[in-house]
Amino acid sequence: MRRTAIVLAVLATAAGLTVGGADAASKVSCKIMTDPAGDVAVQTPAPLPGDDSDDLLWADMASNAKSITVVLQLKALAYPDPQWVFGRAYNVNFTLKGSSADEIFLAARTFPQGVQYHLGHRETLPPLGSSSNIYDLAVTGSIDTAKGQIRITAPMAALAKLGKATKGTVIKSASATVERLAGQGVVASQTVNGNRIPLGGFRYQADISDGSKPYTLGAPSCTKVG
Questions:
Q1: What is the percent of the chain with per-residue pLDDT over 70, rounded to a whole number?
Q2: Which of 34, 167, 182, 209 is most buried, taking the most CB atoms under 10 A from its CB?
Q3: Rounded CA gap, 168 and 163, in Å?
Q4: What are phi and psi of 103, to 5 degrees?
């Protein structure tokens, strides 16, 4: 009877170790934004069919004391893309406590004359009364057409100027979007006498992530920072 009890105790301990390992592994953040393939719907005055460069599959986020990185995975990625020569905006959007912005974003814009990477925020401005993009800082990034991935990295110090961005801050509302651009990409939109002038052109949403899991700044991630 005692041997049986000992054996059961050992088995219980082993099971506990297994469960503990699974719990530990589950704390690693991975692909916090997801979206099914084939759900592209380009929103323009006349709806257009999308292609694989519009089709978001997942996006992820990683951070440490110095930097924050986001990755977007597309079904395929052509740059430049003959299907839409004006370029696209690939964005990861989220909110932070203490921020006055409608939303904060990390974006890659694939204009014909080159790719621009920005940390920015959205706020509602006249005369249109709709949310406008404000580009706060040019940051670093890369496009990997072989993998179909876009990476964008910004300094945590710059993010902290837009809201609470300390280690342990939980981001609950992250989303990823793909937008087709209609503009020149050289002269940015500007605010003149309190009015927003869309000199940079317009954006037409093509795809948006369906689901999102919370991400804690500074937490381990399957995405590499930088």
A1: 81
A2: 209
A3: 13
A4: -165, 150
